[in-house]
Every structure is written in C-alpha cells, then in structure tokens.
Write a structure and sequence with these properties.
The chain has 501 residues and is an alpha+beta fold. The chain is built from 13 helices and 27 strands. Among the domains are: 2-92 and 427-496, no CATH class; 358-420, 2-Layer Sandwich (Dna Ligase, domain 1), CATH 3.30.1490.270. It has helices at 8-11, 37-45, 48-64, 93-117, 122-125, 131-135, 183-196, 212-221, 245-255, 311-316, 340-348, 365-372, 399-411; strands spanning 2-3, 18-19, 26-28, 31-32, 68-71, 78-81, 84-91, 157-164, 170-176, 233-236, 258-260, 265-268, 271-276, 279-283, 285-288, 321-323, 355-356, 378-382, 391-393, 416-420, 426-431, 436-445, 447-450, 454-456, 461-464, 480-486, 495-496. Helix 4 crosses helix 11. Residues 88-465 form the Circularly permuted ATP-grasp type domain.
Length: 501
C-alpha cells in the first residue's frame, strides 16, 4: 500500500489516499490518468465543507425520491436508502468499445446456448459442455424443452458483472440472465449527479443513459407473439416487499406501462388479461420480475401466490411473451459459468473478448483437493447463490467458517465453485460525510438488452464496497453505488503532475 502525496493546495481531500491494486484514477503516487485529470483538479479545488454540503444534498435527494432496496433478515425485511457516492467512475471511449463488443458477443453466445439446451442440444452431444452439469442445474427447466419463443430470444435483459484484475483487464465475474436488478439506480444516479454536482460535467462529454426505458420497451415489444402489431406490455412484480420493488415501479412508470401483481392477471380463452376499471384488457408481453419457481403454481411451486395459474400454458401456445424467457437460469449457474468461453468458441467461432475469472470446480477431484487445501486463499461461492450470500472469502474467514465450508463442499461438490481472491479495482470515494476521499473497491454491472439488435447501456451500475478494505459490493452487504460515465472520446494518456499525484 502506497500513500499518495500532493501539494498542500491539492492535499486536503486526498490527504489519506492510499493505492491498493489497480486504481481507476491514479497510475501511481505521482500520476493521474489522463481522462481523470479534469475531475481530479475540480475535486482538489473543492473545500471539504463544500463537498460535505453537496454530498448531503445528494443523500437528501435519494431519500426524498425514495430510492430504496430491501434487505431480508428476520421478519419481512428492512427497507433502506441506497448509499450513493458522488465521485463518478470514468470509462474512456476505447475501453468502453471493447467492453461493449465483449458483452454483445457473450450475450449472443449465452442465448444460443439456452436455445440449444432446450432444443437440439448439439453442444452437449459434442461434449463442449458436460450434460450432467446442465441437467443437474437448479436453473434447468425441463418444461421448456421444445418450446419456441419469439425470434429465438431468451435473454431480453442481462446484467453482466465485471471486475478488473491487478493490471486493469476487465473480466466477467458473473452472468445475471434471469431477473437482473440495479438499472434504476443507474438512471437515478445520473439525475442526482446533474443536480447536486453539475459543474463536474463541464469538462466532459458523457454518453447519456436516458434512452434506456425506450430501448427496454422496444426489446420487450420485440418479445410479443407473432402477428401482434401493437403489443400491450406489463411489468409483473412480486409485490411491495420484494427487494427490488422500487425498480419495478420505476421502470413501469418510465416505460408508461402497467405495474401488476399476479392477482391482477387472469387466463381467459387461452390468453392473459389484466383486470382494469374498464374490464379485462389483453396482455401480450410480461416483463416478469418473478423467478421461474413462482411464475405458475400449476407448473412450478404449488404454494406460490405470486404468479398466475395457467401462465405457462399460454406461454407454450404462443399466446403471451415472457421476458426474460423461462429457463435461462441455467446460464446463471456458477457451475456452468467456466464453460462460457467454450460456448463463444463453439457457437460463434470467435475467441472471447472478455475473459473469465479463473475458476475451480470441486466436482473435479483434482480441483476439489486444490480448493480444500487452500480455503484460506480462495473465494468459495454456492453455484445458485446471489446477493453476496452463501460465500466464503478465505482471507477474511475464521477457522470455523472454513471448516463449515469444507464440510459443505465434501457433501455437495457440484454445489460450489472457488476462485482466487482478486483485489477489485478501487475508485476515489467520499468518506466521513465528505471530509476526505479514499479508495474503495468497485465492480461494474452493465445492462444488455436483446431485441432486434443487442444494445448495451453506456456505463452501468458501479457498486462500491463502502467499508474500508471490503471486497463485497452488494447493497445487501453494505455496498453503495456511483454514477458511471462513458466518455464520448478517448482523452490523452496519463498526465504527470510533478511533485504531486
């Protein structure tokens, strides 16, 4: 860890800044990356009290607008305001171009894989992906075998989690292709930044994110059954106690469509209708924010009160479109994640643009031995886990926690993967209410829409591990978020500031 020093006039906010691993703003104690220099200079010129004041304004806007998420624990859950950091993360145009191409490539291959799994299964027959992994996945839905979906698109909305390795390369950490959340924070973060910190935009040409709702609606309309020229779209939510309910309501409002719960929908003559004050109105596309298990009690969990009885029958016969389709959870399975580069080569005959994190599969005996003897060094994840739950971070674990995971892995090796502990890149973050700026670890979740074409929202959700030294960015585990700026043009290379940063 190296301390950053700066001339006295520029030192107040950055006085305790330390470099750990790859830093988004700094290349070293004497250098600011070229595309960050205007931002650094503006921040360095802001008196700490002014930064504290504007940070409070931003927090107040978040609270006033009710930008929340729910953390589950005992009882029904606790609603919290999403913590927001006002220092944006900057992504140069050339960096983003590579990310965008890599995401489009990956989602195209993942979609082809899902289609193949539920139809011809060529990739399984050829042995490029082990069949037992697929059929043993909690996300595999045999009910989807042979079902044709509009335009063969299964993955209408994806959130792909990226991290940077110690030298700055972007790697895919996870694929989220069922009901990914977080895009509402992307849009709201930009609104808050424009109002609370407008001067920071003056030195940059930043690509907008405001087209997302229109692009999402277009992708959803593309999922309509054939022969429906003007489809009616609804957003299906589990209800107000869901952790992402704020987002469900926000997106429905932004798209100008109805937000419904399962009790608002009925089956009639094979079609799906929603109850309105004017009577029943036909529904053509459902943007469902409910997991497969709860969609239809006649097909999946019989105790579900969240879905719609008979919905799968209407879906099978092509009377309604679902986005995302039923069954893509098979590619969210972390046990299948290591094979995505093979999928890209198999279906597209291309090398992956974005790599995976090195992953060990305990189901393989040699891998299992490696994992069990190095638990203190590795991150272990349940293949069906999410939200930062069901994880062991080896370097931060206790002997008792490691022993617990050892027993779990030995009992169910298919249920876990392990990866090296990678120090996430860090980004300048306001701490102590605005009194100082320190580095905090971040990841990036870009959002990908698959309609007539594959579009990537410029930027995405940068999640921040707010506790010092933490590597867990999930909001449920104390993480926050910040605005992500994709720059329209690539600025000059790193700039040396002499005796300072």
């Amino acid at each position: 860890m190296r301390s950053v020093t700066a001339p006295r006039s520029e030192a107040d906010l950055f006085r305790d800044y330390a470099l750990t691993g790859f830093d988004e703003m700094f290349t070293g104690p004497a250098h600011v990356r070229g595309h960050y220099r205007p931002l650094f200079e503006r921040l360095a010129a802001i008196p700490p009290k002014e930064l504290e004041h504007r940070s409070r304004i931003a927090d107040g806007m978040m609270k006033q607008q009710g930008i929340t998420f729910t953390v589950y624990g005992r009882g029904r859950g606790t609603e919290r305001i999403m913590p927001f950091d006002p220092i944006p993360r900057l992504v140069p145009a050339d960096e983003w171009n590579r990310i965008e191409r890599g995401l489009q490539q990956r989602v195209r291959a993942l979609n082809l894989f899902v289609h193949d799994v539920y139809h011809a299964r060529h990739i399984l027959t050829d042995g490029a992906v082990p069949a037992d992994l697929v059929f043993g996945s909690a996300g595999y839905r045999r009910e989807m075998n042979g079902i044709t979906v509009p335009h063969d698109v299964y993955l209408h909305v994806c959130g792909i989690d990226l991290i940077r390795d110690p030298i700055g390369n972007y790697l895919v950490l996870e694929d989220n292709c069922r009901t990914p959340s977080g895009v509402s924070y992307v849009l709201k973060n930009r609104e808050v930044m424009k109002q609370a910190f407008p001067t920071l935009f003056e030195d940059y040409s930043v690509r907008p994110v405001s087209d997302y709702a229109a692009d999402l609606l277009a992708a959803l309309r593309h999922a309509a059954p054939p022969g429906v020229p003007d489809p009616t779209v609804v957003v299906l939510t589990p209800g107000a106690f869901n952790s992402a309910y704020y987002e469900h309501a926000f997106l429905a409002r932004q798209m100008g469509v109805q937000l419904v719960e399962g009790r608002d929908l009925v089956l009639d003559n094979g079609g799906v209708f929603m109850r309105t004050t004017r009577g029943l109105e036909r529904v053509d596309v459902i943007y469902r924010r409910i997991d497969d298990d709860y969609l239809d009690p006649l097909c999946f969990r019989r105790d579900s009160r969240l879905g719609v009885a008979g919905l799968m029958g209407a879906y099978r016969t092509g009377r309604v479109g679902l986005a995302n389709a039923v069954g893509p959870g098979v590619v969210d399975d972390k046990g299948i994640y290591p094979f995505v580069p093979d999928m890209i080569r198999y279906y597209l005959r291309e090398d992956p643009i974005l790599g995976n994190v090195e992953t060990f599969r305990p189901i393989v005996p040699a891998h299992r031995q490696h994992v069990l003897t190095r638990l203190e060094e590795l991150v272990v994840k349940a293949v069906d886990g999410s939200g930062g739950y069901g994880m062991l971070i080896g370097p931060a674990s206790t002997a008792a926690e490691r022993e617990e995971f050892r027993r779990k892995i030995e009992a169910n090796p298919r249920g876990y993967i392990a990866q090296p502990t990678i120090t996430l890149s860090q980004s300048p973050t306001v701490v102590d209410g605005g009194a100082r700026i320190e580095g905090r670890h971040v990841d990036l979740r870009p959002f990908v829409l698959y309609g007539e074409t594959i579009k990537v929202l410029p930027g995405g959700l940068t999640r921040v591990a707010l506790p010092r030294g933490s590597l867990v960015v999930n909001s449920s585990q104390g993480g926050g978020s910040k605005d992500t700026w994709v720059l329209r043009s690539t600025p000059p290379a790193k700039v040396q500031l002499g005796a300072g940063i």
